[in-house]
Amino acid sequence: MTVLTTATLLLAAGVANAADKTDASLLATDPYQLSSHVLDTSMGKGASSVEVKLFKAADDKSETWTLVDTQKTDSNGRIKTFLPREKGNAADKLGKYKLTFATGAYYQAQKKETFYPNVSVEFSISDNTHYHVPITLTQYGYSTYRGN
Fold first, then answer.
1. 20 to 30 Å CA-CA from 49: which of 79, 95, 99, 134?
2. Which domain CATH number covers 97?
3. What is the pLDDT of residues 5-63, one digit of tens each?
4. Are the CB atoms for 101 and 50 separated by under 8 Å?
5. Which residues have CB under 8 Å from 13's CB, separation 6+?
6. What value, to the nearest 5°, has the Cα angle with vertex 45 and ends 75 and 125?
């Protein structure tokens, strides 16, 4: 099975710099490029009010991070509004990112101990598609994957 990204389709259609083009239909149907979800598997539900910070690296080899946004998860443990899409700036969104979840504060509010005071997940955005970066969480472990 071949997966075609928006950038691939634009290149095939003859658009020279597809990374700089933001498809108008993406703006209408998916106004944000990045979302996340924190699922507390010990409770079987989303973790609400978890502070999540989004950082972007200066470049792919850099360990210098710039804070892009800070949000809290909603009542279902979700954040749907990271990296708003704006016409013409798709190439600016490419690069290495890091989400840092304040899991210690989440468990402290429940009067529970945790082994991980923060969970950080690094990932790369390489095209204009939607990225979903969730974590499943317990007091003593976590896991992540690329969702959709």
1. 95
2. 2.60.40.180
3. 434 333 343 334 444 444 565 666 678 899 999 999 999 999 999 999 999 999 878 88
4. yes
5. none
6. 75
